[in-house]
Input
Amino acid sequence: MFYEISIKVDRTQDNGKEKEVVEKYISECVSFTDAEAKGVKVYADYSINGEVVAIKRSNIYEIVNKSNNGNEKLFKAKIVSIFVDDNGKEKEQPYHVLLWAEDIDDANSKMKQYMSQGMQDLVLCEIKQTKLIDI
Output
């Protein structure tokens, strides 16, 4: 299961002043406790004081591409899987995925490629840039 972790940290701004900001991450964890430990570790590795201020379960089903080439942002896509149930009725099952992309056009292209690998009918409903910083 994926969890969104919000961490409060002091960052040096362009003008040289320190400012307290909240940065959001997403991580695959087994529990809230595991998510908190991973959130604390993010900043401990860089010897920066960071405080986990919020953790919530994410509705993300999968992360499409886990590597970032440096200038990409995280986008969230909503996909609807269309299938026929046991009674012969057509059903829709929505789910969300994350992916790294340079811009909305790149995200759309990567999602079309991802969806072409599926065995079911998939419909891309929405793509939007997130405020998440990293995975």
About this structure: Strands lie at 2-12, 18-28, 50-57, 60-63, 73-84, 90-101, 121-129, 132-134. DSSP finds two helices and eight strands in the chain. The longest strand covers residues 73-84.
